[in-house]
Amino acid sequence: MSKIIVNGQTINIIQQGGEDYISLTEMVEQHPDGNKLIERWFNTKSTIDFLGVWEQMYNQDFKTPEFRGFRENVGSGGFFISAKKWIETTNAIGITAKAGRGGGTYAHKDIAFEFGTYISPVFKLALIKEFQRLKDEEAKKLGGHWDFRRFTAKVNLKIQTDAVKEVIIPQTHLPVEKQGILYAEASDIIYLAMFGYTSRQWRDNNPELAKKGWNIRDVANTHQLIVLANLENIDALLIKNGITDKHTRIQELRKEALSQVKLLRTSTELQHELIESPHLAEHKRLSQTDTTSKQTPSLNEPLSDFNNKLKTALNYNPKKESDK
């Protein structure tokens, strides 16, 4: 458990599934309304919309029909949503409750930052500043070159998702409860270009790692994280320039991935040093499998061969396979 101090208030941060969760309870401890502020925030349509999109992006087990029910009734007289009810009904992972010392309601940092806006813009900015200071200190202690690359890749993901929000979503006219599919698809386009498979395929092929709460990025090396971050920026530019067809984007991003990996492999710059994920050290079995080798695109693989694999990946439907 880590701690930060915001405006004189100590706020605990816990790790869950390799992600940071910030205490909402402690964020409002000095506020006159205390926990009632969390309840009011939770029972607004904008909050439920935000939570629903977030869960659809990051939680494959999120119950969308139940979310739709909450969304239709939130704000109506007598209807009340608690954090516990939200978690149990929708199988949400962005909000969690912790009992005992340091307990209370915790939220993934993305959601906690959003709640910070509800408290006040000044509080949100102070929260982000202190959180980043903590991450910087942790990175220094870990010699955090890998952590910095991991953080950069996640930051650039926001640039890509903003492009999806501004350009692709308005073209689809999808309801809010289904828009998360487009964000998840955008992430998978990057993974297909870089690795040749989707995040779902990676989880299916690496069940032990998935059970630990890890994803593709958690086991990527620094070269892969650098390229992923760059591809997210490039994809955002493609989208904003009107190139929204996913097949075209994947082809362009694939070529760029191969080029950048080749450059990084031959670079002698210190900042381009290849550092494996620290998670791999905890999972020694990976060093004896093909998992890591499959993480990097093969420089010798003809683009036509990759295209055939790509068609298979794009048509991949785990649900249909499980029904066989």
Order of helices and strands: EEEHHHHHEEHHHHHHHHHHH
The largest β sheet comes out as:
5 strands, antiparallel
**Strand composition percent:** 5-15%
How do the strands line up in the largest sheet? Answer: 1-2-3-5-4
Put simply, the count of helices is 16
Helix content: 55-70%
The figure for the number of domains is 2
Q: Which structural category do the helix and sheet elements fall into?
A: alpha+beta
- N/C terminus separation: 44 Å
**What is the residue-mean pLDDT, rounded to a whole number?**
81
| Annotation, overall tally of beta strands | 5
Oligomer: single chain
Give the low-confidence spans.
284-294, 298-303, 316-324
Rg over CA atoms, rounded to whole Å, is 21 Å
Q: Which geometry do the CA atoms define? A: globular
Topology:
Layout: E1 2-6, E2 9-16, E3 19-23, H1 24-27, H2 35-42, H3 45-58, H4 64-73, H5 83-90, E4 95-98, E5 104-108, H6 109-119, H7 121-141, H8 145-172, H9 180-194, H10 199-205, H11 207-211, H12 222-240, H13 246-266, H14 278-282, H15 303-314, H16 318-323
